[in-house]
Structure formats: C-alpha cells, structure tokens
Amino acid sequence: TKSSGLGACEWLLVLASLFFIILTLPFSIWFCIKIVQEYERVIIFRLGHLLPGRPKGPGLFFFLPCLDTYHKVDLRLQTLEIPFHEVALDSVTCIWGIKVERIEIKDVRLPAGLQHSLAVEAEAQRQAKVRMIAAEGEKAASESLRMAAEILSGTPAAVQLRYLHTLQSLSTEKPSTVVLPLPFDLLNFLSSPSNRTQGSIPFPNSSKPVEPLNPKKKDSPML
C-alpha cells in the first residue's frame, strides 16, 4: 500500500473489482484490455493515484474499468502556435518533460528608428547596384561606338552610307524637317587644317582688293 498510496478501503474496492472481472470472464476481458500505438504511451490513474512504474505501451495493457482512468501521451513532434513573448527559454520546459527541437520566428517587431535605418541602407544598396549596372551598360555602349568609329574611319564608303541612312531616318521620323545635305568634298575641304585661316572660310578671288565706291558716280545715266 505504501508503494501505490492506496488505503484499506481502496484496496477492498480493487479486490472487489478483480473478483467481478473473474466472474464475468471472458466477456469482461474486452473492457479491461486496450491497445497503445508505437508512438504513444499510457499513464494509468487508479482512484486518483498514479500507478508506480513506467508508462504502459506500446502494445496491450490491462486496467480496471470501474477504478482506473488512463491518459494517452503522443510522443511525436508537434507544432504549436506560441503567443507573443519578449523572451522564450527552453530550459524551463525540461521539468515538464518537454524537449524543444526547433523554434521558427515569424514576426519580429523592431523599433521605428531601426526600421528606418534598415530601409535607408537597403535603398542605398539598391541605388548602388542600379548605378553599377548603368555604368556597365554605358561602358559597353562606348566600346561599341569606338569600334564602329574605327571601322567607319577606315572606309569612307561606309561613312557615306551612314550619312545617307541618317538623312533617310530624319525624313522618316520628322517629315516637316527641312534637311540641306552638304557634299562630302565640301565637308572635307572645310575640316582640313590647311584650309583654315583663323576660323574663316577662304573664298575664290578673296585677295582681290575691293574698289571703293565713288560718291560722284551716284547719279547713273541708267537711272
């Protein structure tokens, strides 16, 4: 009685229950045997007292229907929704027989100042990445333009074709625009350093002095 904690009256009830089960065999055996799954364990309480020994299971276990009550415990991992806490410790769960395997944080409440700082830092990183991509694109475009300029400078015919293509695109995109094309010979003549004299354009017979206008010849006989 000391091991189970039962009194004299409780032991009399246990003996009476066992005697009744023996008298009603084999029908009573169906009410006294239960099955426990592999992932479960059973704790038996007899007249409110916890029976000594290890939990029952897995397999079959015997109990007294009138005096015993049992509780099944699931040993599988369970996912629980824990309310909001400032601090959560797993050391306090050991005394309850619970082992915390993993905790996933779903919501973190940060101060407004820290949120602003993180947002500014993320925006600065994004802007820096955009500028790097734009700079790489401009570098690639400048390399392509340099190669195209080298190719066009070596072939005058390609320059003329490019010139005609530009004129055609201008007339297509802006029909109201008036374009006055200049010959390439004149452009080469104007761009040559030997023909530039202080930024002025030489004209034929420019060295011939200009005769001054005689005021006496205002009255022309043709008038």
From TrEMBL:
<feature type="transmembrane region" description="Helical">
    <location>
        <begin position="12"/>
        <end position="33"/>
    </location>
</feature>
<comment type="similarity">
    <text>Belongs to the band 7/mec-2 family.</text>
</comment>
<feature type="compositionally biased region" description="Basic and acidic residues">
    <location>
        <begin position="214"/>
        <end position="223"/>
    </location>
</feature>
<keyword id="KW-0472">Membrane</keyword>
<keyword id="KW-0812">Transmembrane</keyword>
<feature type="region of interest" description="Disordered">
    <location>
        <begin position="197"/>
        <end position="223"/>
    </location>
</feature>
<dbReference type="InterPro" id="IPR043202">
    <property type="entry name" value="Band-7_stomatin-like"/>
</dbReference>
<keyword id="KW-1133">Transmembrane helix</keyword>
<dbReference type="InterPro" id="IPR036013">
    <property type="entry name" value="Band_7/SPFH_dom_sf"/>
</dbReference>
<dbReference type="GO" id="GO:0005886">
    <property type="term" value="C:plasma membrane"/>
</dbReference>
<protein>
    <recommendedName>
        <fullName>Band 7 domain-containing protein</fullName>
    </recommendedName>
</protein>
<feature type="compositionally biased region" description="Polar residues">
    <location>
        <begin position="197"/>
        <end position="208"/>
    </location>
</feature>
